[in-house]
Amino acid sequence: MSPGFRLLLSVIPFALLGGCSSNWQSALQAHGGPAISLKQLIILIVAICSVVWALVMVAMIHALWRRRQAWRAPMELIPRRERRMGVIVTGCVGATAVIIAGFTVASFLTTRTISVPGKDDLTIRIRGLQWWWGVEYLGPDPARRFETANEIHIPVQRNVRLVLEGDDVIHSFWVPSLAGKQDLIPGRINEIIVRAEHPGTYRGQCAEFCGLQHAHMGIVVIADTPEDFAKWVDAQRAPAAQASDEAVAAGRDTFMGKPCAGCHTIRGTQAAGTTGPDLTHVGGRAFIAAGLLATTQGSLAAWIADPQTLKPGNNMPLVPLTPDELRAVSAYLASLK
Amino acid sequence: MTETIARAQILDTALERPRLTSQLAQTWKTESGLWGALATVDHKIIGRRYITTAFVFLALGGVLAILMRLQLASPEARVIGPDRYNQIFTMHGANMMFLFAVPVMEAMGVYLVPLMLGTRNIAFPRLNAFSYWIFLAGGLVLWISFALDMGPDVGWFAYVPLSGPQYAPGKRADIWAQMITFTEVAALAVAVEIVVTVFKQRAPGMSLDRIPLFVWAMLVTSFVVIMAMPAIMIASTSLILDRLIGTHFYNPAEGGDVLLWQHLFWFFGHPEVYIIFLPAVGMVSTMVATFSRRPVFGYLALVMALIATGILAFGLWVHHMFTTGLPRLGESFFTASSMAIAVPAGIQIFCWIATLWDGRPVFKTPLLFVIGFIVTFVMGGLTGVMVASVPFDTQVHDTYFVVAHFHYVLIGGAVFPLLGAVYYWFPKFTGRMMSERLGRWAFWLIFIGFHCTFFPMHVLGLEGMPRRIYTYQPDLPWHGLNLFVSASAAVLAAGFIVFFIDVFVSARSGNPAGDNPWDAPTLEWATSSPPPAYNFAHIPVVGSANPLWEQQGSLDVANGLHTDRREIVITTLTTAEPQARESSPQNSIWPLFAAIATSIMLVWSIFSPWAVVWGSIPVAITLVGWFWPKGTPEDEA
Amino acid sequence: MRSLLSFVCMVMLCGCQREERQLRLDPPTADALDKIALMPNRIGGAPPQVYFALNQPYELNAYNLSQGKRLYTWFGCKSCHGDGQGGIGPSFLDGWWTYGPEAVSIYASIRDGRPHGMPAFKDKMTTEQIWQLAGYVQTIGAYSAKTAAPSRNDEKQTRPAENRAPAAILFNEGPAPVHPDQGPTP
Predict the structure, then answer these.
(1) CATH class of the region C27-165
(2) Which domains does chain A have, with CATH numbers?
(3) Does A256 have pLDDT greater than 90?
(4) Which burial class, exposed, middle or buried, applies to A136 when counting CB atoms under 10 A from its CB (0-12, 13-18, 19+)?
(5) Which residues on C lie below 8 Å from A257 (Cβ)?
(6) ipTM score
(7) Are C27 and C69 in contact, with CB atoms under 8 Å apart?
(8) Domain ranges of chain C
(9) In Å, how far is A263's CA from the nearest CA of chain C?
(10) What is the pLDDT of residue C8?
(11) How confident is the model at residue A76 (pLDDT cuts 50, 70, 90)?
(12) CB contact under 8 A, B346 and A92
């Protein structure tokens, strides 16, 4: 189909949506290789099905309101008409079968297209936990691996292999603008290929009901240019930033002395807990609490002050802090860029 | 000699009409008062009870839906917290699927199948009574536990490990699993009764090609129930075992498999939706014929389509698991089979449109609901073809797109025909017509409310909104559509309220209906409205598929049955030649006692495994009471 | 009839208590729950009034007990106490509670530590978490399983689940005899 026609087809769903421009969690705003193939298939099937539905409606409306001949008793059937209707119905059923066969083939071809193995030099291990995402960047050299949480950076125009592991219950990794979804199932390891065509921020959410805070289990995939990506990786590999001033140092001490260090890791300090997200570079992430709040000192303070009101039922306890302690800790965490 | 003469005088050949009907009424009656109501085995009373109870559950489930829509109308709303919301959507799904949709379809069959076949009662009438009490008990267990903050909160399909022993504390998931047992026993009982009734109790002359399409639909549905229910029985029982005594069916660390649950559940779960849909197909075929004033086009094709759907329904279940990482070739097979089931559905739609085309449509309320069904179900079926495609599904699985799809096929494909069927058969059930005016109001409110509520969900799903979320964040662009959806849900609710008002008002003061107010062709219209306890004064003999249209005025009948004891005619399987006279059981209180004993055992087993041992004793006692020969005349034959 | 009705109501209400989920403990309540009254020898004592006002939530509530089970793994109890059968630290399943079986003693053990190696978790866990863990530890060693007790975890199985009363199964010698060195009873 011509580029103009394709453009026209792709505009129709946008028109339906009223032109939402800042939406980066949408199957119809496809910015990744797999998502683009999927969107083309979606548009194709939706278009054909719409036409089919319209034709059936036209047939039904005509059947109901056409002008008829004189009254006939219920059992007075005309054999010629019955035969002709039989031929037409058979034809329609045949057409249905052909269309469905076409859809099946199109689906299979699309699946093949998006399952390209690709060069695997970038592999990221994603762990799904109630209700956050553990991220570990793997590579050939174990010393250069590092962990983060809830946010992934990938270089553009490169296939990235995500290895999906469910740690507790079934979750589902879904960033619709980049790819379809794949489940994280305890006891098995799944994989998905994502690929971003342009730099940008793409949001996703867990798509398999996983308990109390399934609604707040977001993930962010940021596609960088290769240079930006390399810079980001180096920054992430480095241990946490040193405290820049007294307030921040006080916050760090509070963090280590309170229950925080028991659950969270900040590389380069004595905090080495493994049950909560890694906070080594939390200040540099776009969101905290798995996509709940944009990262600022204020939102960090709000989160720490009362996680159970913002995300009721999640596994972070309400640690009682004095206002000074809260200010200090949030300043410390905000400084961990 | 005198005994033979005496016996001959109580056969229906020997009696004149007034004496015949009064004698039959005496033999087949249900006593008045509480005991009579508890002990009846009359399929019509039990069927009406079943339908009413199912509609009560529909209303309750609708209230839950309104609560959900209130919470989702704005982002980060604080109307309902996550724990309560999880209970609400689990209850909504479980209630609608297990306590409304399947039971109401079974119940329509319980009421109508014996009448359409020209027999006096359903097969195994006491089992029928037991089925209702077990169903009611299951519903009460679920709703009372919800009222006590113990309602299940793991989704209506309760995936492990979320519903497993580690992540679902307390007894909530056990309540869900045991409710499954209650409702599946009830459904199995009715399925068995319907199969036997359809095979062996048809009116003489009603060969297989003369069976009404609604009865064919119920027959295929019953086979699907019998084949599918065991899978969920295994699944829910092994879940209870895992939770209660520590087995490892779903524990990967000890050799179990998380995906085993999904396979078992969906092996049942997919046929389940056809269990709901096929009876509705039968209702549509019936109403299309009556309101087109001609026999439905393509009887053989429609029967073949029903059977093909029932068989194919078992080959689709993996389409619920397309994102679990199964092998690609296997998944593609299920894409092909899931799309293939659109072919029988297409056959049905085209045959119905052909019937309307060639007939003379009478635009009464039932036909309006049929038209609404065609509009809605075709759309739902087409979105079904969309989600059948593996790659398409990887984007829309577990999003509001799927929510839209299944509401289109379930409400469009099952509830619309059901509402039309209520308007259609209400005169037969109660002897009164429903109001055409209120019927139109109900239809249009429901139709418009439904489409405005559920169509935008397709867009929401494609726009990234997952399912089963109790709220969403303001920076996502879903607020406008969600608000619109919630407002439209009020219109849909209003439509249902108008429907319920119509039912209540018409039951009291609707216009009296004659025997056959719609001039319909099937046998249930050959008796009075409502039918007497004995259904037909004489067993009809049929010579065609549309007896009341072929044989205008009067029907041939068979006679020679006793009138002093409950007797029915057994006929052969294919050609329905009379084979034998068979007794039909009298009223009995034992099904109620057995249901109470079974309920106690099942509820107790939520808390202790010993319930299965000790609780079996009362069940055994009640079964002994049930089958003990009572010296009634029916025991003879 | 009335007694039957009240029995049914009691059963139903117990159900309520078992199943409710309190996701957020108010900080003032958490403060109050920390003010246990221990005996001078730090064995036994009384929980604060608010504990009874809340209907003993950490012993009778399934959600709290399951959270306690999660915390048992998360805070490394397994490294010394194993799955409850002990190791470096004492067993909970042998019928002998060094500091008594009351929830308040277990709470004090976890919060303040005990001699000979039990660390204090006062700075590592919140009050609510310590109570949840204490209630859970109590169920490990209970001789009769509570309905609210958690079931097996999705991991390798090394002892019967808490709702199967592992203490009774593993050490089925009847009531444990009084230990010869038993100190003053609380």
Answers:
(1) mainly alpha
(2) 3-25+239-335 (2.60.40.420), 33-68+77-114 (no CATH), 122-237 (2.60.40.420)
(3) yes
(4) middle
(5) 123
(6) 0.92
(7) no
(8) 27-165
(9) 8
(10) 59
(11) confident
(12) yes
